[in-house]
Amino acid sequence: MVAQKGSSLVTLFGYRISWAQLAWFGHRASGLGVLLFLFAHVVETATVALGPDVYNFTQTLYHNLPARLGEILLMAALVYHSLNGLRVIMMDFWPRTTVYYRPLTYGVVAATIAAMIPLSILMIAPYAPWGAA
Amino acid sequence: MAVGRTIWTEQDAAHERRRYPSARQRPGPQATGRERFWWYFMRISGLILVLLALGHMLIMHVLVELSGQEINFAFITSRWGTPFWRIYDLLLLLLALVHGVNGARIVIGDYVQHHTLRALLIGLLALITLLWLIAGIIVIVAFNPGSGPAVGPFS
């Protein structure tokens, strides 16, 4: 697709793409990121078969700030991938909505940010000076 | 291509097929056989996963902590003591893994042009997925909450 004249373009891997097309790249990146975590998560959860000592130890790997920041990133990736996926499904099965491709795409980004504000605050709370539970 | 036109026409689709050869192979609802199945699978599993995966994240990564609990062996014993959560986790494992790996397969197909390398990567991905899936299903199904502390496989 040719980007509209005057619309902002970014260069990514040698392609000049619009911000709306970045949404497509974000869908891939977030999907692959969540998949990578899923493979690790299956291994980590499988340690439950080795008994309480091993499993309780594996869970302590999550109990630090970097892991929690990763969890917040994971949540953001999943929220974005879900909302953008719903947009794709809607446009696939209800073609007339493709007319609103741009506003819907920006809406997905806006909704992701809106959802992540309270979620991030809740998730970071145990590590924040103002919210040690 | 007209500038400023937002409606996608058959002419645009034909233009894209000529310009981007990989788009010709991209699965769509018009695809036949296996690719048609995967096109629908991604959308239907995606709809279910919005509820399952976001629900899982919200419960395990937000609500558990808010309610003053901690995820440990005792938590899993209680959680997998009910068939509901076992079936929930089984369904989530199956759909998320297959949905994610099929996405990765499509990404590999888009970027890896070399036929042998592409087949090798996709085959490897399928093999790893099968192993992970079997391991995951065994862990969820075989977990025995009434067995008390487990002693590991070597004793």
Helix and strand pattern of chain A:
EEHHHH
- CATH architecture of chain B, please? Up-down Bundle
* Count of discrete alpha- or pi-helical segments spanning 4 or more residues of chain B: 6
CATH topology of chain A: 3 helical TM bundles of succinate and fumarate reductases
Query: Measured on Cα atoms, how large is the radius of gyration of chain A?
Result: 19 Å
- Write the H/E string of chain B, N to C: HHHHHH
CATH class of chain A: Mainly Alpha
Largest interface: A-B, 45 and 49 residues
Low-confidence stretches of chain A: 1-6
| Residue fraction in strands of chain A | 5-15%
Tally of helical segments of chain A = 4
Distance between the termini of chain A: 51 Å
E-strand count of chain B: 0
Mean pLDDT of chain B: 83
Q: Beta-strand level of the residues of chain B, as a percent range? A: under 5%
The overall number of domains of chain B is 1
Poorly predicted sequence stretches spanning 5 or more consecutive residues of chain B: 150-155
